[in-house]
Each structure stands twice: as structure tokens, then as C-alpha cells.
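Exercise 7b. C-alpha cells:
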């Protein structure tokens, strides 16, 4: 476990200099959306922010010297990969916490209802699954080639994360009342819903880790 944390800390050191360039512009856009009244778009942007954050270690590790340093540490390949996934999970936890607090507040003051909470939660789950799909791609092809392939992977999730909340909440197309009522019924069974979502994320994360491990093991220097 100590070696996993060491790799996690190494990732944090790698991104320390470049993270401000990745954070500043998206953070400004997110704040503008929130304060301009586009709450749904702002929350969606926070979830999409996770996909941006997830790629930073791969971007900063793109040079050959940095890559060799990862393999030179006296640790197992599984610990190296696990450290990178620990970074992803930590970033996801922080962003989900921020989004969760905002959504909980909006739900408390009745600006959000069950349906809105479900849709935003779906966007969050989709963003994390997208990251799980991307990681093996980056390990296999590297940042440059992997980025081109990943664009195809997250085009649809990006459309759903950004477009779905705005379409459902702001277009006025709530004629699908039966559908909404069904989702509200699902929301009333919140424990079951949380367990299903957690199971899906665990399976997706574990499969992503296994594939990434096998790829890195075959590339071991």
C-alpha cells in the first residue's frame, strides 16, 4: 500500500506545475455558468471537469524520461497502475463531493427535485465510466495517439453530460410526465439506486484496472 501511495504522490508532483493551466479556464467557465443562472450547465461542466483532470498525469508523463522513472521504481507494475487509479478516484471523490453538496442544497431549497437529481447523478457516473474507458487507451497508445482515439470515446458522453440536463430542464419539454414519474419512483428507492450505481462503477473500474495492468506489464522496461 505504501508503494501505491508513493506513485500517487509522484503523480501529484508531476501535475503540480501544469495543473493551474488546466484548472483556470474551466473553473472560470463553470463559475460563469453557475452565477448566470445556468445551474444545470455549471454542474454538468463540473462533472466533465473530471475527464480533463484524469488526463493530466498522462499529459505530463508524455516524455520518455518521465515514463522510464515510473518503471524504475522498485515496485510492482500493479502498484504503479493502482497509484494512477488512486489519483483518479481521489479527484473523482473531490469533484463528486462538490457537485453533491450543491445538488443537496438545491434539493433542500426545492430548486431540484428527484428527477433532476437522478439526471445529474447519471452524468456523474457517465463521466467516471468515461475515465475508466480512457485509462487503458492512454496506457496502450500513449497520450498523443490515445487522445485521438479517446475523442471518439467521449464524444457521446460529452454530448449527454452537457446536453441532456439542459434539454430536459430548460427546453420545457416535460410532456413525458409518465417517464418523469417513473424516474421519481426509482429515486424514492434511493438505497437500491446507490447500490446499483456503486456496483456498476466498481465493475467498470476493476475491468479498467485489469486491462491497464496487463498493458503496462507487457511494456515493462
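Sequence design result:
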Amino acid at each position: 500500500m505504501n508503494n501505491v501511495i508513493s506513485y500517487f504522490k509522484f503523480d501529484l508532483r508531476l501535475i503540480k506545475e501544469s495543473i493551474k493551466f488546466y484548472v483556470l479556464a474551466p473553473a472560470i467557465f463553470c463559475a460563469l455558468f453557475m452565477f448566470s443562472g445556468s445551474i444545470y450547465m455549471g454542474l454538468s461542466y463540473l462533472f466533465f471537469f473530471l475527464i480533463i483532470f484524469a488526463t493530466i498525469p498522462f499529459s505530463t508523463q508524455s516524455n520518455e524520461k518521465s515514463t522510464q522513472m515510473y518503471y524504475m521504481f522498485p515496485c510492482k507494475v500493479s502498484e504503479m497502475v493502482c497509484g494512477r487509479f488512486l489519483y483518479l478516484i481521489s479527484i473523482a471523490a473531490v469533484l463528486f463531493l462538490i457537485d453533491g453538496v450543491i445538488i443537496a442544497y438545491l434539493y433542500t431549497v426545492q430548486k431540484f427535485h428527484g428527477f433532476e437529481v437522478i439526471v445529474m447523478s447519471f452524468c456523474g457516473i457517465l463521466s467516471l465510466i468515461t475515465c475508466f474507458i480512457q485509462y487503458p487507451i492512454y496506457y496502450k497508445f500513449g497520450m498523443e495517439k490515445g487522445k485521438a482515439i479517446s475523442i471518439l470515446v467521449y464524444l457521446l458522453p460529452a454530448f449527454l453530460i452537457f446536453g441532456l440536463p439542459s434539454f430536459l430542464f430548460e427546453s420545457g419539454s416535460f410532456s413525458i410526465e409518465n417517464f418523469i414519474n417513473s424516474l421519481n419512483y426509482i429515486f424514492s428507492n434511493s438505497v437500491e439506486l446507490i447500490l446499483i450505481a456503486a456496483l456498476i462503477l466498481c465493475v467498470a473500474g476493476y475491468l479498467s484496472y485489469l486491462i491497464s495492468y496487463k498493458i503496462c506489464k507487457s511494456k515493462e522496461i
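Instructor comment: Residues 2-219 form one domain. The CA atoms of residues 140 and 219 lie 9 Å apart.
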